[in-house]
Recover the amino acids of this structure.
């Protein structure tokens, strides 16, 4: 196992991409802490599946818009496992809609969950990380290509992660801590179901002509988290079926 003895924190690990990432990291040998927003039952299921793999698991409720809850999640994970090696900043909100219809509350919430929380999580997690740690941020293909209208707020929030990731890579490089950003294309989750209204439209923007599966994003996270990712930092990696091609 490549991640034996490592401890990971995955935000938004109760469903979708975060769930697949949490399970995959556990399969690779890591103990996994995860956050959720409101689906305590789903989070408990993921915890049970990780424990069934013989790994330790812990879940905590944390709205990304609540800075204190986010910071408490880091402290709780580090206390639970006695270490923290891998942070996956996955939790995010969709925040799509026509420019004229986005409210100030929409803007504040999207920036708090999609930008401020990953910043605070990285800041708090690196205080616990030993040399060789990993920060993996989940962005979006819409940060690379505004293929259709309605993405102004979402793309703004996800593009901010490019700056965060590069600056973290530069600052933490001397400690052997890497920071990278994955830009998923359309991935079949509750946020963006592959049988949803706009699914055919979105698939049409990809070179492969289909939605991705959460496990296909988790595979790249596992690559970055393991020893395989040790010389890869500051990068934005499109795992998008060619959406940005
Ligand atoms: P889902 O909506 O399927 O799952 C979202 C996860 O985040 C859940 O675990 C949810 O918890 C948690 N969450 C939701 N709202 C908040 C909040 N306010 N604060 C903290 N956690 C929250 O999303 P996906 O798996 O599709 O998306 C995961 C990431 O990937 C997001 O950052 C998203 O922007 C990005 N992405 C997704 C794409 C897609 O097509 N699916 C494409 C490109 C990027 P709970 O279960 O408790 O509600």
């Amino acid at each position: 196992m490549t991640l034996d003895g490592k401890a990971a924190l995955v935000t938004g690990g109760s469903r979708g991409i975060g769930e697949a990432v949490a399970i995959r990291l556990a399969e690779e040998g890591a103990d996994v802490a995860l956050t959720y927003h409101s689906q305590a039952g789903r989070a408990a299921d993921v915890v049970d599946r990780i424990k069934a793999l013989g790994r330790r698991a812990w879940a905590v409720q944390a709205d990304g818009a609540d800075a204190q809850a986010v910071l408490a999640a880091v402290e709780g994970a580090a206390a639970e496992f006695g270490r923290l090696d891998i942070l996956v900043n996955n939790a995010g909100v969709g925040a799509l809609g026509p420019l004229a219809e986005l409210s100030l509350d929409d803007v504040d919430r999207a920036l708090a969950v999609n930008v401020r929380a990953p910043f605070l999580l990285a800041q708090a997690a690196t205080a616990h990380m030993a040399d060789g740690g990993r920060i993996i941020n989940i962005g979006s293909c819409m940060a690379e290509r505004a293929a259709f209208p309605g993405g102004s707020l979402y793309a703004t929030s996800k593009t901010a992660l490019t700056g965060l990731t590069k600056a973290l890579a530069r600052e933490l490089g001397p400690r052997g801590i890497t920071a990278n950003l994955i830009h998923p294309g359309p991935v079949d989750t509750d946020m963006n179901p592959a049988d949803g209204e706009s699914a055919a439209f979105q698939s049409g923007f990809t070179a492969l002509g289909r939605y991705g599966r959460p496990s296909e994003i988790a595979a790249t996270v596992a690559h970055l988290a393991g020893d395989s990712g040790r010389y890869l930092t500051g990068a934005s990696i499109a795992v998008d079926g060619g959406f940005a091609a």
Notes: The mean pLDDT is 97.
